[in-house]
Structure formats: structure tokens, C-alpha cells
Amino acid sequence: MVSLWSYWRGGASNQRFDTVGGPMSYASELTRRSPEAVLTSEGSDTGTLRVDLTWRIRSNSDFGRSQRKWMDNWRHPLEVFKPAEIKGHSQGVANMDFDLACMYELSDGTRGVVQSLGGLQGDFNEAPYIKLSGDDRFGTGSGEHLYINLDNKDDFKRLLVFVYIYDGAPTFDRADVTVTLATPDGKNVEVGCTDPPPQARSCAVVLIEKEKDHLVARRQVKYVYGFQSEIDRLYGWGMSWGRGRK
User: InterPro entries, alphabetically (predicted)?
Assistant: First the structure.
């Protein structure tokens, strides 16, 4: 198996992770009414589970703009064939920095975190079998990803995927933030960070636990006003925390 280090050294042509997409892939969403999904099953319990973070800025004028655009297209139907205008990010957008991270507990009792803060990028081929890639400040499709090595799924006890804001003001309530779990057999399980309270800085998004021979994802979407230590206390990880930097 080729490591992420080999991928970064050799370029995209050496990428060996499983990919998802195409006609066989499909998406589902974890909601309050349907909060669980089985991520592994017989025949699809090896390979790579990819966790993606994406987000877009939301404003009170979104609806007004879409309504005006519909009216303009009705008055000038040929305008719809023009390429969309590309606009740069404003300073306020640039100051939004959502980060993806994962607390883990292995079957042997080892506990830790994979995150960009402090340079704790993890490892794909060695414990904790989780690797963080990317640190995207604009929420594009090529943003942050966690790669989880399902070849070692028996070593996982529980994984808590969370999103936090390290730089800039608390802005969960100004963006649509989504975490997507992409399984090797083509399932895309989405969890939206909905109904954020003002000033929230972190959100525990999804808890992945080992049940019998499978990994099961459960929607959390629990906000805290602090950082990782508050999420730790909420879920009883029991780790010691200090100040860190990217």
C-alpha cells in the first residue's frame, strides 16, 4: 500500500486511495429523524473512508439575489448562456477558517487527536491509521480531508469527527458547513452543521463507533463555545490540552 507521504512526493499519479463517484455512488444525509448509518459491511470493509469538509458563506440576501436572478433570466433569456462572473473573496470571507479534525480511541486504549493545529497530521499506515490532508480557507471542493484506513478498522473503538474555528471570529451561523463520509463502496453520507448558536467555535459532527464487525456513524451536531478541550469533556476523552498553533 502506498502511503500519503509517497503520494505527496510523487504527485497525483501515484495516488492509491480508493475513489468514490460515478454512476454507482449515491448520497444520504444523517438527520435528527435518521441519525445513523452503517459505514462498513461485508465486502466493503477495507480500503479508505474519506471524510470531507466543505462550506459556503451564507447571507441574508441569498434569497433576494436568487429571486432577482430568476427575474433577470425571464426578462433576458439569452443571459443564462453567459459564463458566470467570478468574484473574489472579501476580507470577511477570507477570515473564516473552518478546520476538520478527529479525536480517536483505539481498541488498545490509545487516545489522541488528528488536526492541523499543532501539526498533528496523523498517519495512514501506522497508528492511528488516520491522516489529515489539506487546510483550505475558502471551503472549495479541494478542501480538507481525513483519510481513514479501513484495513485496520478492528483497531478503532470510536472516532469523533469535529469542526472548529481557530482563526477569525465565530462564524458557524454565517456559513453552510457540511461533513461528508465517502465509503469505498460509493456511499456518501452527509452531515450538515445545522442550527448553530451565535458565537459557537466548535462542533462535534459525527461519532463513528465499532459495533460487532462494523463501523456505525451517528449524527451529533453538538456545538461548544470553546475548543477541543470542551469537546473532550463533553465526550469523556480525558486528554490533556494546551495551546497550539498551525
Answer: TerD
